[in-house]
Write a structure and sequence with these properties.
289 residues, alpha/beta, 8-stranded mixed beta sheet, 4-stranded antiparallel beta sheet, 9 helices, globular
Length: 289
C-alpha cells in the first residue's frame, strides 16, 4: 500500500497527496496560485490539472485544445453524451459538466487505484452525470451503445505512451460504432521528430472518417520538438474556422491543418492496423524538466 497524505489544508496551505496506484506513483500537487487547484503527476509526468472552484479552467495546452472541440461539438450549453477514454483527474469530464449542464458522460480509466484516489481527494460534483468504468479503454468503449455518443475523447497514456491497441483502424471502427452520425472524435497525440506516429494516426483516421483537422503548436508541426497534437475527426464538415480562431488566441497559439494541407502533411503514411500497431513514442526526459 502506498503512502498517503491528507489533502486537507493546514494553516491555509494544502499538502501534496502521494500514493502508489496501478500505473506508478501518483502525486497530487497543490497550486500555490489557485486556492483549490491541483496537478496530477504519474511517475513525475504531468497528467491533469483540476481547479475544484473553477472546473471550466483548463491549464494544460492540449486540454485547452480539447476544450475548444467540446465547445464546438454542439450549440452553446446544450447537453451532450460524451465518452472519455482515459480519465486522469477527470478534467475534461468536469469541464463538460460545468459548461454543458445535464450532459451524460462515461469515463473509462483502467487504473482503479487512481480512480479511487481522485474520487477521494478531488471529488466530482454530486450532481454531475458522470459514470466511471475502471476497465481498459477499448473494452470500455465496446460497452457504449451503438450511436450513443455526441463526442468521444481519447486521452490514454500508459507510461507516457498511448497503447498500441488504441491507434488502429479496428479501434476507430469501435469509435465510429459508438458515435452518432453527427458526432466528433478527438484524440490527444504525443510525438516528436520525425512525427511518424502523428502522420500514421492522421492516415488511420482518414481511412475511417470523411473530415479531419489537426491542432498543434507550430513548432511541433514543424518537427522541432516533442509535444501534443489534437486530432479531430467526423463525417460532417468540421468547424474549422472557429477552431482556428480559438487555437490562435490561446496563450500558446496553435495552428490548425485540414484538407489538402493535412493530407500532404501525412507524407504518404499508411493506416495502422491491429497487426502492425505500436505504442506512441516515449517522450524524451527533457519534456518534463
Amino acid at each position: 500500500m502506498g503512502r498517503s497524505r491528507n489533502p486537507r489544508r493546514e494553516r491555509g496551505a494544502a499538502e501534496p497527496v502521494v500514493e502508489q496506484v496501478d500505473g506508478g506513483l501518483a502525486e497530487l500537487m497543490p497550486d500555490r496560485e489557485r486556492a483549490r487547484g491541483w496537478t496530477l503527476l504519474i511517475d513525475g509526468a504531468p497528467q491533469s490539472y483540476v481547479d475544484l472552484d473553477d472546473p471550466a479552467y483548463l491549464s494544460f495546452e492540449y486540454q485547452r485544445r480539447l476544450g475548444h472541440v467540446i465547445d464546438l461539438a454542439a450549440p452553446l450549453g446544450k447537453p451532450i453524451h460524451a465518452v472519455h477514454l482515459g480519465g486522469g483527474a477527470f478534467t475534461l469530464a468536469r469541464y463538460v459538466a460545468a459548461t454543458r449542464p445535464r450532459s451524460t458522460q462515461q469515463v473509462v480509466e483502467r487504473d482503479a487505484a487512481l480512480v479511487q484516489l481522485v474520487r477521494r481527494a478531488l471529488p466530482l460534483d454530486a450532481g454531475a452525470r458522470i459514470r466511471v468504468r475502471s476497465v481498459d479503454a477499448r473494452a470500455g468503449l465496446a460497452k457504449v451503445p451503438d450511436g450513443w455518443a455526441d463526442l468521444i475523447v481519447a486521452d490514454v497514456f500508459s507510461g507516457a505512451r498511448t497503447p498500441a491497441h488504441l491507434t488502429s483502424t479496428e479501434f476507430l471502427d469501435e469509435v465510429r460504432r459508438a458515435l452518432k452520425p453527427c458526432g466528433l472524435y478527438a484524440a490527444n497525440l504525443a510525438d516528436g521528430p520525425p512525427l511518424a506516429h502523428v502522420r500514421g494516426q492522421i492516415a488511420t483516421a482518414a481511412a475511417r472518417f470523411g473530415e479531419l483537422a489537426l491542432v498543434a503548436d507550430p513548432t511541433v508541426l514543424r518537427g522541432k520538438r516533442f509535444g501534443n497534437a489534437v486530432l479531430v475527426a467526423g463525417d460532417l464538415p468540421l468547424p474549422v474556422a472557429e477552431l482556428t480562431r480559438r487555437a490562435a488566441s490561446d496563450p500558446h497559439p496553435g495552428r490548425v491543418e485540414h484538407g489538402r494541407a493535412l493530407t500532404d502533411f501525412t507524407g504518404g503514411a499508411l493506416p495502422v492496423t491491429d497487426a502492425a500497431a505500436v505504442a506512441s513514442p516515449a517522450p524524451p526526459p527533457s519534456v518534463f524538466r
